[in-house]
Amino acid sequence: MTTSTATQTRIKESNIGIATLFAFAMIPMSGFATDVYIPSLPGMTSALGISDSQAQLTLSIFLISYGVSQLFIGGLLDSYGRYKISLVALLIFCLSCVTIANTHSIYVIYAMRVLHGITMAAMVVSKRAFFVDLYAGEKLKHYLSFFTIIWSTGPIIAPFIGGYLEVNFGWESNFYFLGGYAAVLFLMELLFSGETIKQKTAFHPEKILSIYTSMIRTGSFTLGIMMLGLAYSMVMVYNMSGPFIIEHHFGLSPVITGYCSLFLGFAWMVGGFLGKGLINKPFVAKMSANVALQLTSAGALLLFFWLFGQLWTVLLFAFLVHVGAGFTYNNYFTFCLQRFPQNAGIAGGLTGGLSYVIVSVLSYALIYALPASSGINLSLSYGLLILMSAGVMYRVFVLSGKEKTDAI
């Protein structure tokens, strides 16, 4: 059963171009929400009188809230539309950023980071569905293949900005920046965007649950989500440990942390471009070569850091690992989002949600087991994640067969 959206504020045909531009501008927001205050993590521990693990937990809380929320938000977006939910989410996100910047209670920050995850899920999943609603065929595939590349601008730019904000204005300024970004997008959405869903699906929990179950039982889709989680966990492990390695182990400033994160964010973008350029190449061959490169790089990081103990050893080999992670993410993300176009909101939510749940659990578990002390622990974390990726890829090959896998 479906209902019409005639009573909704439909997007104007003349505004689709500029609305698409601002939809792309919203995609990197989840990266900004994690990465802009990465250089401030050591500073937050001092200013708030908390431990390193408590500061790192603000990242994990956001990730798990963001991931779990995406599991449910897709059904709401398919039933009630994208536009109004996205607007309300932007406003709440903005207000919660201001709240964080004006408190020194870590527990209030934890609560606001839960809100950040919920509202970010609504914003990002609605914009993924926006593209599926308005575009089709090769144009849709073209836009979706840009998602990873555009998203990567967050990890590239955000820590660079955050390092300077931390040095000049303190950790609170990062959250004022995030709130300002959300406020600008809220205004642009209000002026130029509108509802894009053509037909709403009646909100029947049993039916929605059956759709979720059908998607999860689709082996290639579920394995694709696992690969997304493993790929981004490599980035998040660095995000949670890198600032402490750079600022505590090497005694360098948050600005240097920002430059290093910018460098490694660029690696993710390079991997995304490579993934887009090689998207039609045989899947097994290119992904096997990618895993081999990553595993070699993680091993080289372990050896060279043990021999020289210098920052360049971390950056050089982590760069290669992150290129491989971006390559993996691009290949699987496009496939997962195109897999169920008739339920774009649910598919987008499930893809992002499960992958971020995997990221939050894996990254925090690895940081807990291998604390952020040196490049040696970082290389061991990379190695474990890469070996797990190889195992999942082998499962893809066994279940799908080479011909089906090459079609991905």
Automatic annotation (TrEMBL):
GO molecular function: sodium:proton antiporter activity
Membrane topology: Multi-pass membrane protein
Pfam families: MFS_1
Organism classification: Bacteria, Pseudomonadati, Bacteroidota, Chitinophagia, Chitinophagales
Keyword Iron: no
Major facilitator superfamily (MFS) profile domain ranges (all copies): 19-406
Keyword Membrane set for record: yes
Gene Ontology, cellular component aspect: plasma membrane
Naturally occurring in which organism (per UniProt): Chitinophaga arvensicola
Keywords on record: Membrane, Transmembrane, Transmembrane helix, Transport
InterPro entries, per database record: MFS, MFS_dom, MFS_trans_sf
Protein's name in the database: Predicted arabinose efflux permease, MFS family
Regions annotated as coiled coil: none
Annotated compartments: Membrane
Residues that span the membrane, as ranges: 16-38, 58-77, 84-101, 107-131, 143-163, 175-194, 215-235, 255-275, 287-308, 314-332, 344-367, 379-398
One GO term (biological process): xenobiotic detoxification by transmembrane export across the plasma membrane
PANTHER family: MAJOR FACILITATOR SUPERFAMILY, POLYAMINE TRANSPORTER 2-RELATED
Location (main, coarse): membrane
